[in-house]
Amino acid sequence: MTAAKIATRESYGNALVELYKKHNNIIVLDADLAAATKTGIFKKAVPDRHYDCGIAEANMMGIAAGISTTGLVPFVSTFAMFAAGRAFEQVRNSIGYPHLNVKIGATHAGISVGEDGATHQCNEDIALMRTIPGMVVINPSDDIEARAAVEAAYNYDGPVYMRFGRLAIPIINDKPSYKFEIGKGVVMRAGKDATIIATGLCVGASIEAAEKMAQKGLDVGVINIHTIKPIDKELVIEAAQKTGKIITVEEHSIIGGLGSAVCEVLSENCPTPVLRIGVNDCFGHSGPAVGLLHEFGLDAEGIDKKVSEYLK
Amino acid sequence: MDNVALKKTANELRKDIIIETYNAKSGHPGGSLSAADILTYLYFEEMNVDPQKAKDPNRDRFVLSKGHAAPGLYAVLSLKGYIPSKDLKTLRHIDSYLQGHPDMKHTAGVDMSTGSLGQGISAAVGMALSAKVQKKDFRVYAMLGDGELQEGQVWEASMFAGSHGLDNLTVVVDNNNLQIDGSVKEICSPYPIDEKFKAFNFHVINIDAHDFDQIRAAFKEARETKGKPTAIIAKSVKGKGVSFMENAVGWHGKAPNEEQYKQAMAELEKNGEALA
């Protein structure tokens, strides 16, 4: 882990610029949030391939669907709340049903949106997007993974939902061996007593929590599931078989997200006790992101506390 | 095609609509029959399309935003040569590719999957925008229902199209004045439709949806209009061509029974003979 911190929304904006240098058939759409989603970075670099659709997310999804049938690859961006929430049915019917080659870059996911409060803190997007047949759902854990995800999404033929955050987070994947593959989880740390399966910014926090637990004599492994759909079944089952106890950690509702996805895999293949850590079927509220993550028990301290108690 | 040939073709299309919905035992004959003349004109006169090159990237596009008029679209695609006419009888059957609403993945000639109202026009706007971005000269046509205008997304899409001056886009409103629950005017009036599209920076043309001279002139005017998208408000008769279906709200989403099927086909046969 390095000291540098960067928000994955920023990685997204930077990655689009890099992607265009290699593949000039991309086009970026936004809905009056270019400065926040960071597609503004792309707009500055490639102004004639950035279209602002105004505050009309449902229409923007349809425009992206139409564009994708004509040889360009649209990356369509807004906050997760509006991409997965407001425009759910447009994503389902105009993009998912015809399996169109549209890439959705949804930023400001989860409670770490912070001060804007509950109306803008989307804790339901993974659940919603996961239910659409054929939709790939990716939730990267840092800058390196977010940029790799954008490239992988481009190379995949079909709809992809990418979840990015507002909060600057540490870089955790800065290893020469790092390789991103859609649908492949990454073992971040081996452990014998239990395995934490985490996604997004909770991966870094979970590694830190595992380090704290190690000092107390608990040997807990950490797996990074960046692709929630299709989920890496083999890795999840293997972890359950090896350690017997699974804990999922996500900045998302415990209903329908990573925790549910892991439980679905295990209940059918390898019934295993699972502790789901996430947003417990409640709305968030205003406050600084770091303070909220602490309050909701999604920082290293909170994860350490809950997992340590669970493993007692 | 001259007007007589167009009328004959549209009459064949209407027969197919009746055959399709009768064999499906469900579906939407009313709004398919009201759209039949314009669908005929689009596929046989207006659009640059070729069933032998169904995926040609430079072809014109048609989006049936009022996707429930699928029987009308399938009928015209069949007459044009995209799909075998024998398949029309399988509409809505469990083993058929002809879905209740258009499915671009499985039906040749369908440019966009539609059915959830308000969404097709956005896809059409995306196609038109993409043509401009790629400096291609294909044109995009979208057909909407008048009840569909109650969906807010229609106006989001129109605002974008007007704002970006997408003059390669032509929107046709099939203005038959009926929706499932009754008259469009009484349920939630979209009128004046022409003024609304004008306010969104469209060039607007009002026509009779069953008059081929007016249809021809309108599409010509749309093609010649620069800097603005065009909206053709086509005043139509729901159920047009089948006496007992005309202007009858009950025929929005109901299939004819055997007796009604025979009567409808007899009327259309007679109509066809009169054109011969």
Automatic annotation (TrEMBL), chain A:
Residues covered by the Transketolase-like pyrimidine-binding domain: 6-171
Instruction: Show the InterPro entries listed in the entry.
Output: PDH/Transketolase, THDP-binding, Transketo_C/PFOR_II, Transketolase-like_Pyr-bd, Transketolase_C
Concerning CDD domains, the annotation shows: TPP_PYR_DXS_TK_like
Q: Could you list this entry's UniProt keywords, alphabetically sorted.
A: Thiamine pyrophosphate
A Pfam family cross-referenced in the UniProt record is Transket_pyr
* Cofactors named for this entry: thiamine diphosphate
Q: Which family does it belong to?
A: Belongs to the transketolase family.
Q: What is this protein called?
A: Transketolase
From TrEMBL, chain B:
* Cofactor(s) named in the record: thiamine diphosphate
Keyword set, alphabetical order = Thiamine pyrophosphate
What region holds the Transketolase N-terminal domain? 13-266
Pfam families given for it?
Answer: Transketolase_N
Q: Does the keyword Methyltransferase apply?
A: no
Q: What protein family does this chain belong to?
A: Belongs to the transketolase family.
Protein name listed in UniProt: Transketolase
**Lineage, please?**
Bacteria, Bacillati, Bacillota, Negativicutes, Selenomonadales
